[in-house]
Amino acid sequence: MALLDVQDLAVSFVTRNGTNKAVDGVSFSVELGKITAIIGESGSGKSVACYSLLGLVPMPPGRIDGGRALFEGRDLLQLEESELRKIRGRDIAMIFQDPMTCLNPYMTIGKQLMEPLVYHHHVKKEQARARALELLAEVGIRDPESTIDDFPHQFSGGMRQRVMIAMALINEPKLLIADEPTTALDVTIQAQILKLIAELQEKRDIGVIFISHDLAVVADIADQIVVMKQGQIVETGNRESIFHNAQHPYTKKLLAAIPTDSKQARGGVAEPLIQVRDLCTWFSQDKGKEPVKAVNKVSFDINRGEVLGLVGESGSGKSTIGRSILRLVPVTSGEVLFDGTDLTALEGRDLKAMRRRMQMIFQDPFASLNPRMTVYDTLAEPLLLHGIENRATVGKGVLKLMDDVGLARAFVRKYPHEFSGGQRQRIAIGRALATRPEFIVADEPVSALDVTIQAQILDLMQQLGREYGLTMLFVSHDLAVVRHLADRILVLYKGEVVEQGSGDDLFEHPQQPYTRQLLTSIPGRSLLA
Amino acid sequence: MNTQTINDIAQAEQGTSLWKDAWLRLRKNHLAVFGLVTLVLFIVIALLTPWIAPYSYQAQNLELGASPPSAAHWLGTDIFGRDLMTQIMYGGRISLAVGFVATTVALLIGVTWGAVAGYVGGRADAVMMRLVDILYALPFMIFIVLLTVVFGRNMLLLFLAIGAVEWLTMARIMRGQVQSLRQQEFVEAAISLGLSPATLIRRHLVPNALGPIIVYTTLTIPNVMLLEAFLSFLGLGIQPPQTSWGLLISYGAETMEEYPWLLIFPGLALTLTLFSLNFLGDGLRDALDVRGAKD
Q: Mean pLDDT over all residues of chain B?
């Protein structure tokens, strides 16, 4: 018998603008000792479906319209709040995307781990501490004896997620709901956490619901996969059938969005547009402390028309390199030659003239657009600033840019908050292209987007790159995406280049142990083979 | 070029500025429009007072003394038999001028100072903000008395003195706003477009920091008006026979029991102005917040 059996669950949100069916007739089940993955893009209702089972959807505006959710023979949807509270945390535990916001920053993790034992189960303090140590060791925290009295900020993102998992496990739950637990983590850390969840599930024989927007992430661990779109299930199946025999067009689209190929090498003469020589960007700390060497003695060339991929985990300095080239952060030493001109020496008018020739596309399309400027204002600003269009012709120039990046002209008067993430990134790309630059730094331009939107934006960037004859520095933590797009790849580790080469070279014959580790961390690598 | 394209371009060129959109939204807010109309009315009356006031400014009628509202004196007269409506109109000239001029001074200095300090950061920021701290620490009364002693007593000085005190808080608010905005990627995007710092502050930072600034401004204007009354009461500001709302109210308060209209009418004028300012301020804040707007 299934541990959790959800039948025809329907949840809607009643707002002033009408009723929105967030979950519409969803059925799935979770078995003990199995992982059920729920996949869907933002707004597909995947989280709402799970939260509503535990009474975690605020009502109103939320409303459960119908359905059953049998957990060990009891219907969760019919339980009183007081009974649900007993189940929550004890029989069903949750872990979330961002462990930092779920931990109390003013309490040591040991105290936070022991709290439920001491207060709810009246376990003696010493016993609780012993149990906490045991769990920390189980989730792979090294040397728990010395770290148990540390505060959350003293842990890295991956370690915090391990602590969260330990907290979820402390009451020996039968069902663990993991909501995008690895989305905020680096690819190598993500691989470790995925492995940990799979191991724990097997060892403890518990059921797991793994919510994610990314099919590739669950490719290696899920037993059962449920694909959701707009509140409904479009396809359910085991891992084999979903990955090798998908029926529904949407599932196929999701699968197709996982980049698996490598870009074909391009011919032609290599003529460097950008030459970076011994670039150092250090950030000074308090007096007496060593500066943080975000970028340390990095040298490379980018040839005209080439896409150079820059990969590394967070803190590797990959974003700082892009910003150093564009003079957005002060460079400590070294040279950046752009078409023979040293950018690090430019000031004032000369710098402004060079800025026209190089632009940036940012990671977060929510933060990179001025919330109080319409699409028109955002796109017109660079056109007017650099005298590309005058007052009389700027309207035409704005519409041309909107056409280029695939935005409907009717949106010209809208503000950023009225757009989806993908549309905003199109606006940001339009702004970067407005000055007709030769060189673009794209800093994780798709990592904040849903998978299918990612594929669209990447296609758009490739197409525009050809049309505008762009040279590009593509910064990403996602190796698969970089391989798909880049002519050459640079692997960065702790501010230094550890390896470089074409996509195929790196993927098939990685020289450095760090590159190898990165490669084995790519989610869904079984699909690449 | 086909007609569709021409239409699109025409629409795009119609201008899509934040201010125009804000104005359209403000017009739909009845309370804000009421506030705006009342304020404009008061300002127009204040400007035209010398020509439209029912009585002369100095005209006394000692025989009449304090009289309640009547056909000849709509709002009554004070103990010297001076027409109260005339007094309120002349008082409004001073009070509104102090309120708006001093606040505008405070706004201009404060916003610029705070924005520059917040944007430039580092040592310049430290120096600029320490200066603000020092001025904060100066006792306000001593500052005013010193100014009056050195420069003598005049209206302009009063405006400047009040403005010079009120901008400090404005600068702090603005600096905080700009510091948090500066971390956002759209500012980096603007830098990489090649915008000069001045344009960047004006076009990208100030509009995004306006919400708290507008609210604080609507709080500053009444504050300034009361400050003027306080200074005048101490003999450092406006002196009779010149008058202001603050002075009228303070005299009215003394004779509240015998002649309540001397307190009620000037009080009403001040209250109405403050209400209008608050309605307008709230309306402006909402109108400028494009995110809160419902189409």
A: 82
Predicted local distance difference test score (pLDDT) of residue B77: 80
Q: Cβ separation of A382 and B193 shorter than 8 Å?
A: yes
Is the separation of the CB atoms in A321 and A491 below 8 Å? no
A269 within some domain: no
Residue A464: name the closest of A354, A361, A385 by CA: A361
Domain match, A350 and A415 both: yes
Chain A contact for B40 (CB, 8 A cutoff): no
pLDDT at B6 over 60: no
Nearest CA in chain B to A329: B188
Tell me whether residues B193 and A355 touch, CB distance under 8 A: yes
Residues A435, B188: C-beta atoms closer than 8 Å: no
| A355, A385, A395 ranked by CB distance to B13: nearest | A395
Q: Does B197 touch chain A (CB under 8 A)?
A: no
DSSP reduced 3-state for A478: coil
Task: Tell whether B58 lies on the interface with A, counting CB pairs under 8 A.
Answer: no
- Residue B122 touches partner A, C-beta closer than 8 Å: no
Contact with chain A for residue B211, Cβ under 8 A:
no
- Backbone torsion region of residue B186, taken as left when φ is above 0, otherwise alpha when ψ lies between -120 and 50, otherwise beta: alpha
Domain span including residue A377: 307-503
- 3-state SS of A286-354 is CCCCCCEEEEEEEEEEEECCCEEEEECCCCCCHHHHHHHHCCCCCCCEEEEEECCEEHHHCCHHHHHHH
Q: What is the pLDDT of residue A465?
A: 86
Same-domain check for residues A384 and A467: yes
**Does A371 contact B at CB distance below 8 Å?**
yes
Whether residues A445 and A335 fall in one domain? yes
pLDDT for A359 equals: 92
Same domain membership, residue A79 and residue A11: yes
From CA B197, how far away is CA A84, in angstroms rounded?
56
Q: A409 in a domain, yes or no?
A: yes
Structural domains in chain B plus CATH codes: 20-51+73-288 (1.10.3720.10)
Structurally, how many domains does chain A consist of? Answer: 2
Q: Which two tokens stand for residue B243?
A: 């008058």
| A473-524 pLDDT, tens digit each | 999 888 888 888 888 889 988 888 888 888 788 888 888 888 888 888 877 7
Q: Tell me which of A99-113, A153-167, A486-500, B57-71 is least confident.
A: B57-71
Task: Kindly list the residues from chain B whose CB atom is less than 8 angstroms away from the CB atom of residue A363.
Answer: 185
Most distant pair of Cα atoms in chain B: their distance: 83
Residue A278 covered by a domain: no
- All residues of chain A having their beta carbon less than 8 Å from the beta carbon of residue B188 are 323, 328, 360, 362, 368
Pick from A116, A16, A42: which is nearest to A422 by CA? A42
Q: Is the ipTM of this complex over 0.95?
A: no
Q: Is B184–A367 a contact, with Cβ atoms under 8 angstroms apart?
A: yes
Main-chain dihedrals φ then ψ at residue A19, nearest 5 degrees? -95, 135
CATH number of the domain bearing residue A434: 3.40.50.300
A348 and A430 share a domain? Answer: yes
Contact A395 B204 (CB under 8 A): no
Query: How do residues A62-115 score in pLDDT, each as one tens digit?
Result: 888 888 888 888 888 888 888 888 888 788 888 887 777 778 888 888 888 888
Task: Verify that A316 and A239 share a domain, yes or no.
Answer: no
**Are A82 and A12 in a shared domain?**
yes
Q: In angstroms, rounded to a whole number, what is the distance separating the alpha carbons of residues B25 and B284?
A: 9
Inside any domain, residue A508: no
- The strand ranges marked E within B136-252 are none
Q: Does A409 touch chain B (CB under 8 A)?
A: yes
Q: How many CB pairs under 8 A join A and B?
A: 96
Q: Does A346 touch chain B (CB under 8 A)?
A: no
Nearest to A360 among B192, B195, B208 (CB): B192
Chain A residues in contact with B12 (beta carbon < 8 A) = 376, 395-396, 398-399, 409, 412
Q: Do A371 and B9 touch (CB under 8 A)?
A: no
